[in-house]
Amino acid sequence: MSRTLIRNANVVTVDPDLRDIDGADILIEDDRILEVGRGLSAGEAEVIEAEGMIAMPGFVNAHIHTWQTGLRGVAADWTIKEYLRAMHAGLAGHFGPDDIRIGNHIGALNQINSGTTTLADWCHNNPTPDHTDAAVDGLEASGIRAVFLHGSPKPDPKPGQKHFSEIPMPADEVHRLRNGRLSSDDGLVTLGLAVLGPQMSVWEVCEADFKLAHDLDLVASMHISAQQMMTDDGFQRLAAAGHLGSRANVVHGNALDDRTLSFLVEHGVQFTLTPEVELQMGFGDPLTCRLRRLGGAISLGSDVESDMTGDMFAVTRFALQAARHEDNLVVRAETGAAPDTITIPMREAIEWATMGGARMLGLENRIGSLTPGKQADIVLLDARQLNMHPVIDPVASILFHAGIGNVDTVMIGGKLRKWGGRLTDAPSAAQLDALAESGRRILADHAKSLG
């Protein structure tokens, strides 16, 4: 048994009962938070002096395509149509297992470096078991907490092949993982499914994928990026089969009509929003304001690693300000003036980026807040730096002033993964070179294939 005491921090617990506690300590035993409060006894504990720092739960990045890390920047000028054509029907087919492994490894290390302690790795470029194992290898090597969401590729079919919309999730492969290396729900890396859903699959595939997730008690996450569904009544049929609920997750959903959105919220479906990518690629207005009015469950993700930074400070700030802007426009249209008061308090946004993601992944009893009994997934921000000092409201400091450069310490399950501003298991020069070479080769191979 080992104990660590984080002493004299400005603690933002994201726990509605504990709230914020300035000058507080966090006592950790092995992988769990034991106590949070002032003047805790250290005993034989290792002490981390945190005066001048803000302690917060690690961000939960609820939607990221980590496998694209080696192609950063290529999607910066793409719409969703261009992205689907160039990435999924093109570049994705040139990834080998080693490309997936190094992308996931370095991408996950970047998340840790940026203050994220849990990610939902939406892996839809795993055409073989070797690709899948390589993706999991990369996550495990980084030390991050992750839910590996097993997906399926979306290439153009060759003559005689079925379209991807007609191909169900490979059940044997999912069972291999569920009965093997990802069998535990208490591990650092656990299993979920990235399914096609009603928009991208025929009913038989949609039903099979959700039944597989239900039978194995896994989260089933789906992209909904357009109004037109391949299975028009898919959500109603899934609900009738008992497959909609808190273990179902819709990513995006911007184009959903009010009736369908209300139906999904009423059935407890979780939503993950990626506003920066959504606004660039043409999805429409983010769902944030509509979900708030309905009482829907909101989480946030950085999404396309080949397009946007995986920085959850930026993701959360952008999501909040975009939603405030949308509300402001409504008031201005009605009154001709700015609102009298702000419509969305900042504390909601930090909840989206922590507990919201935890709930989406079914991990709300383990992570997402600095609550005694939960996993010790803790981030310390150096608030003495010029961009943050002085701290008047620690939540305002986190959301509107902090950035990656303030992330001093990251602890995941009680283990230090970043300390004194440096990763404890930083990638080597050779690993960084391998990531860059992976991206160059994939781009070159794709260019050759186009003639």
Automatic annotation (TrEMBL):
The lineage's top-level taxon is: Bacteria
Task: State one Pfam family annotation.
Answer: Amidohydro_1
Residue ranges occupied by any Amidohydrolase-related domain in the UniProt entry? 54-416
Signal peptide interval: none
Spell out the Gene3D superfamilies in the cross-references: Metal-dependent hydrolases, Urease, subunit C, domain 1
State the similarity comment: Belongs to the metallo-dependent hydrolases superfamily. ATZ/TRZ family.
Tell me the InterPro entries matching this sequence.
Amidohydro-rel (IPR006680), Metal-dep_hydrolase_composite (IPR011059), Metal_Hydrolase (IPR032466), MTA/SAH_deaminase (IPR050287)
Q: What is this protein called?
A: Amidohydrolase family protein
Keywords attached to this Swiss-Prot or TrEMBL record, sorted alphabetically, are: Hydrolase
